[in-house]
């Protein structure tokens, strides 16, 4: 029987706080982790350098960077000429689907992760979606993850061969940002390496005002800690 220590996992790694924590969780659970990041036309490219540093710090069996062009379809403040919302309160951030939602992004990312998993004969995929702080994002809900797992097992050679099920792990889905940070600290994640901001300056410093920054800052504040990432003055 194959032990957890002998198994591999594909881990979606953006370079942000959540995905770094998920990678740390997968490593702690004994998986040999193959990190997968995407250059998809996002304006916050600093996260990709962060992903490289996080993968190195936490230790991975490999780290692949895949090029996509989601700017070709646009429709998001992260991939189009649309202003990133700033200074929104809790009510605004949890009402409706924000313009920072990238159409079908997690579906696309998980599909690539699934294909990569088939190639390396790996049945476990980790993703850092969170439904508590990002309730407006339809592709961050538990229902979506469960549905994709069903699709993965129905629509792949690996899924129908009868050996064992493909599993999509979303260990942060029901955690608050403060709980995510607390878990990451327990696992020695160096959050100074991570980048979360949707609209950083040319030096890569976070704006401190977009939804991602505000949620991140609150998470550290709730833990009575200072965020070690660089912010604009």
Description:
This protein has 233 residues and is an alpha/beta fold. The protein has a single domain, classed as 3-Layer(aba) Sandwich (Rossmann fold), CATH 3.40.50. Helix content is 36%, strand content 11%. It is built from eight helices and five strands; from the N terminus they run βαβαβααβααβαα. It has a five-stranded parallel sheet, sandwiched between helices. α1 packs parallel to α2, α1 packs across α7 and α7 crosses α8. The longest helix has 15 residues. It is globular and about 55 Å long. The N terminus is likely disordered.
Compile the SSE list and pairings.
Layout lengths: L7 E5 L4 H12 L3 E8 L6 H13 L3 E6 L22 H4 L11 H15 L4 E3 L15 H13 L2 H4 L6 E3 L7 H10 L24 H12 L11
Parallel strand pairs: 1-2, 1-4, 2-3, 4-5
Helix pairs in contact: 1-2, 1-7, 7-8
């Amino acid at each position: 029987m194959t032990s957890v220590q002998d198994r591999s996992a594909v881990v979606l790694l953006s370079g942000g706080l959540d995905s770094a924590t998920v990678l740390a969780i997968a490593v702690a659970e004994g998986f040999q982790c193959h990190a997968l990041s995407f250059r998809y036309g996002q304006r916050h490219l600093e996260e990709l350098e962060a992903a490289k540093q996080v993968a190195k710090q936490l230790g991975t069996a490999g780290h692949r960077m895949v090029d996509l062009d989601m700017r070709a379809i646009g429709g998001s403040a992260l991939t189009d000429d649309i202003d990133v919302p700033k200074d929104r309160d809790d009510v605004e951030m949890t009402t409706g689907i924000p313009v920072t939602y990238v159409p079908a992004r997690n579906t696309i990312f998980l599909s690539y992760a699934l294909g990569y998993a088939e190639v390396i004969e790996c049945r476990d995929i980790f993703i850092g979606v969170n439904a508590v702080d990002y309730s407006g994002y339809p592709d961050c809900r538990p229902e979506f993850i469960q549905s994709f797992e069903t699709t993965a097992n129905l629509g792949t050679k690996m899924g129908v061969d009868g050996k064992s099920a493909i599993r999509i792990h979303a260990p942060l889905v029901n955690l608050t940002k403060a709980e995510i940070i607390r878990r990451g600290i327990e696992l020695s994640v160096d959050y100074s390496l991570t980048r979360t901001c949707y609209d950083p300056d040319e030096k890569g410093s976070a704006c401190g005002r977009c939804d991602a920054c505000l949620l991140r800052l609150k998470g550290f504040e709730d833990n009575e800690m200072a965020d070690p990432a660089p912010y604009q003055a």
